[in-house]
Design goal:
heterodimer; A: 2 domains; 7-stranded mixed beta sheet; 4-stranded antiparallel beta sheet; 11 helices; B: mainly alpha; MetI-like fold; 2 domains; 14 helices; 0% strand; flat
C-alpha cells in the first residue's frame, strides 16, 4: 500500500482547512482539516450526520444558501469557498466529481441516461453529436454496462440499481476529474452488487489515476478500498491514519468502538459490541470532547478541555483527537494512568 | 397501447351516458317543459297536442330509450323554442365561447406558471409572499364578483372598456380576465409547490454537482419534472373554465354556450340543454385524453405501462 499523502513529490490536490458549516447557527462541521493527494484513495467514515457528505457539498458550493460556511478549501492551491459561480461550475464534474448514494433518485427520471452522461461530456469536454455519443458509449463500456448502445437510450427506471450506479460513475468520469467523491455509493444496493461497484471504483481509479474519496458508514468497505481513512464524529475528524494502522491500532475510543461493532467472518460467533448512547444533536453538543458522554474511558479533562486533531502536516501519519490517546508516530498509544 | 385506448374509450362512453341520463332525468323531474314554453292561457287541447308532437305524453323510460336510439343515429333532437336542430343551435355558439375560453386558458398558463416558478425560486422572499397573497386573493374571489367589480371599475368609473356584448376585442378583455384570473391563481400555487418538491430531489443536486449552470438545472432538469403535476392541474382547470363560462357569459351578456345553457334551462328546452351537456362532456373527455397522452410524452415511466399492457 502506498501513502501518496506523505510523498513530498506529490503535493496535495485538495487541501481543506478549518472548514466550518452551520445551519441556522447550529454547527454541523466544526473545523475539518484534510488533504487529498493525487491518485490516492481516502476513506471518510462515521455515522449519519457526522459531516462526511456536508464537507464535500460545502467544498463544491452545493449547500443551500442558509448554510454559513467558513474556512478554506483549496484545489491545486486555488480557493474554492465563495469562488465565482462560473469557476465552481467548471470545478464541479470537471475537477471534482461526485457519485451519490441512491442512484435511482440521483438520476433525472425524465431524461435518457445516455443524454445525462452526454450533458457532462458537453459541459466539460465540449463534445457534441456523434463524438459525444461515441465517448458516452466508451464510458458505458468502461464502467461495465453491457449492451451499451441500447442502454444509452434507456431511462433510469428501466435499469437496475447497480446499472444506474454504473451510469452515475460514467457520468462522473465524463469530465475526467482529478478527484472522485463517492458518497455512500453502495449503501442503496444489494450486497452482491456492492462488491461489483467497489471493484469498479478501484478499477477506474487505477485506469485514470484520479484520487478517490470514499464516504461510507461501513469501515469494512473503507478498509477494502482505501489507503488512508478519516473517522468523523459530530462534525470533526477524530482520527486519521493509514487503514492498516487504523484497523490494527485504533487510537480514538470512538474508532475502537466502531471496530468492535464490526462482525468478524473468522473466529467464534459472539455478540457484537455497541457504543452506548446516540450521536448528540449538533445543537446540543457538550463542552469538551463531543464523544465524551458516550466514552467508557472518559476522564474529567474530557469535558473541561476542547480537543482538536493535532496539526501535524504531512509528517504525522496517525493522528487522533483524543486527550487520553493523542497518537503520534513516536507514541502510537499513550496509556493513561 | 390498443388495450389502453379501448379502455379509455369505454370509460369515456360510460361517462357520457351517465351525464346524458342524469340531465335527461333531472330536466324532466324538475318541471313540465310544456308549461314552461306555452303561456298559461293555452287551451288544454293545444297543450295535449304539443305534448304528443314532442313525445312527452309517453312514459319516461320510453322517452329515454327513444332519446338514446336517436343519439345513436346522430339525431340530438330539435329545439322547442325555434324548431331548428339542437345541434345547429348549439354548434353556432361554440366558436363564440371558445373566443373566451381559449384566451382565458392561455392567460391562466401565461400568468400562473411563471408566477409559480418565480415564487418557488425566491422561496420565503418578498416576491414569494406577494405572489402567494395575490394567488389567494385570485381564487377566493368568485368569478361573478370579480366580473362585476371589473365592470364597475373599467366600464363604469373609468369608461375604458365596454361592460358587455360581443363582437370586438375590447369586449373580450373583461370576460377573458374574469375567467382567467382564478385559474392563474390556482396554477401559480400548484406550480410553486410542484417546483419546490422537484427542487428538493436528489437529481437536482446531481445536475449541479456535474457542473450544470443553475439556470439550466431549472429549465432542463427541474421544469420537465414539475410539468407532470402541473399538467394534471391544467386538465382539471379545463373543466372549471367550461363551468366558469356559464357565470361569466351571463355577467357580460356574452352570447356563447353558457348564456344559451341558462336560457335553455329556464325555458326547459330539453334537446338543447342535453345537447350542450353532451358537448361539454365530450370536451372534458377529449381534454382528459389529451392530458393522458401528454403524460406519456412528459413522463417516460408512464410510457412503460401502456407498452407493457399492450404487449407491443
Amino acid at each position: 500500500m502506498t501513502f501518496h499523502a506523505f510523498n513530498p513529490s506529490n503535493p496535495p490536490i485538495v487541501e481543506i482547512s478549518d472548514l466550518r458549516v452551520a445551519f441556522d447557527a447550529t454547527p454541523v462541521l466544526r473545523g475539518i482539516d484534510l488533504t487529498i493527494a493525487r491518485g490516492e484513495a481516502v476513506g471518510m467514515v462515521g455515522e449519519s450526520g457526522c459531516g462526511k457528505s456536508v464537507t464535500w457539498l460545502a467544498a463544491l458550493g452545493l449547500l443551500p444558501k442558509r448554510a454559513s460556511i467558513s474556512g478554506s478549501v483549496r484545489l491545486d492551491g486555488e480557493e474554492l469557498l465563495h469562488a465565482p459561480r462560473r469557476h465552481l461550475e467548471q470545478v464541479r464534474g470537471g475537477r471534482i466529481a461526485m457519485v451519490f448514494q441512491d442512484p435511482v433518485s440521483a438520476l433525472n427520471p425524465v431524461h435518457k441516461v445516455g443524454d445525462q452522461v452526454i450533458e457532462a461530456l458537453r459541459l466539460h469536454r465540449g463534445l457534441k453529436g456523434a463524438a459525444a455519443r461515441f465517448e458516452a458509449l466508451h464510458l458505458f463500456d468502461q464502467v461495465g454496462i453491457p449492451d451499451s448502445a441500447r442502454r444509452l437510450g434507456a431511462y433510469p427506471h428501466e435499469l437496475s440499481g447497480g446499472q444506474n450506479q454504473r451510469v452515475m460513475i460514467a457520468m462522473a468520469l465524463a469530465g475526467q476529474p482529478d478527484v472522485l467523491i463517492a458518497d455512500e455509493p453502495t449503501t442503496a444496493l444489494d450486497v452482491t452488487i456492492q462488491a461489483q461497484i467497489l471493484d469498479l471504483l478501484q478499477q477506474v481509479r487505477r485506469d485514470t489515476g484520479m484520487a478517490l474519496v470514499l464516504i461510507s458508514h461501513d469501515l469494512g468497505v473503507i478498509g477494502e478500498v482505501c489507503d488512508r481513512a478519516l473517522v468523523l464524529y459530530a462534525g470533526q475528524v477524530v482520527e486519521e491514519a493509514p487503514v492498516d494502522l487504523l484497523f490494527s491500532r485504533p487510537s480514538h475510543p470512538y474508532t475502537s468502538g466502531l471496530l468492535a461493532a464490526l462482525p468478524r467472518i473468522d473466529g467464534p460467533r459472539k455478540t457484537l459490541a455497541t457504543i452506548p448512547g446516540i450521536v448528540p444533536h449538533p445543537s446540543e453538543l457538550a463542552f469538551g470532547c463531543a464523544f465524551a458522554p458516550r466514552c467508557h474511558q472518559r476522564a474529567l479533562i474530557c469535558s473541561t478541555t476542547e480537543v482538536r486533531l493535532p496539526v501535524g502536516g504531512q509528517q504525522l501519519r496517525h493522528r487522533s483527537a483524543c486527550l487520553l490517546h493523542g497518537s503520534t508516530p513516536a507514541r502510537p498509544e499513550v496509556a493513561l494512568a | 397501447m390498443l388495450h389502453f385506448i379501448l379502455i379509455r374509450l369505454a370509460r369515456a362512453l360510460l361517462t357520457i351516458l351517465i351525464m346524458v341520463t342524469f340531465a335527461f332525468v333531472v330536466l324532466r323531474v324538475s318541471g313540465d317543459p310544456v308549461l314552461a314554453l306555452l303561456s298559461p292561457e293555452t287551451p288544454a287541447s293545444v297543450v295535449e297536442a304539443f305534448r304528443q308532437s314532442w313525445g312527452l305524453d309517453q312514459p319516461l323510460w320510453v322517452q329515454y330509450l327513444r332519446y338514446l336510439l336517436a343519439i345513436v343515429h346522430g339525431d340530438l333532437g330539435q329545439s322547442m323554442r325555434d324548431g331548428r336542430a339542437a345541434v345547429v343551435v348549439v354548434a353556432e355558439r361554440i366558436p363564440i365561447t371558445l373566443l373566451l375560453t381559449v384566451p382565458a386558458l392561455i392567460l391562466n398558463i401565461a400568468i400562473g406558471i411563471p408566477a409559480g416558478i418565480l415564487a418557488a425560486l425566491k422561496r420565503d422572499s418578498f416576491v414569494d409572499r406577494a405572489v402567494m397573497t395575490s394567488a389567494i386573493a385570485g381564487f377566493t374571489v368568485p368569478s361573478f364578483v370579480l366580473g362585476l367589480l371589473l365592470v364597475l371599475v373599467f366600464a363604469v368609473e373609468l369608461p375604458w372598456l365596454p361592460s358587455g356584448g360581443a363582437g370586438s376585442i375590447q369586449q373580450m378583455i373583461l370576460p377573458v380576465v374574469t375567467l382567467g384570473v382564478g385559474g392563474a391563481a390556482v396554477l401559480a400555487r400548484f406550480t410553486r409547490s410542484a417546483m419546490l418538491e422537484v427542487l428538493g430531489e436528489a437529481y437536482i443536486r446531481t445536475g449541479s454537482a456535474k457542473g450544470v449552470a443553475w439556470r439550466r438545472v431549472i429549465s432542463g432538469h427541474a421544469l420537465p419534472n414539475a410539468a407532470i403535476p402541473i399538467l394534471t392541474i391544467i386538465g382539471f382547470m379545463i373543466g372549471n373554465l367550461i363551468a366558469g363560462t356559464v357565470l361569466v357569459e351571463s355577467v357580460f351578456s356574452w352570447p356563447g354556450l353558457g348564456s344559451l345553457l341558462v336560457v335553455s334551462v329556464m325555458s326547459r328546452d330539453l334537446a338543447v340543454v342535453q345537447c350542450i351537456l353532451l358537448f361539454v362532456a365530450a370536451a372534458m373527455i377529449i381534454a382528459n385524453v389529451l392530458v393522458d397522452l401528454l403524460y406519456g410524452v412528459l413522463d417516460p415511466r408512464l410510457r412503460g405501462t401502456g407498452r407493457a399492457s399492450g404487449g407491443a
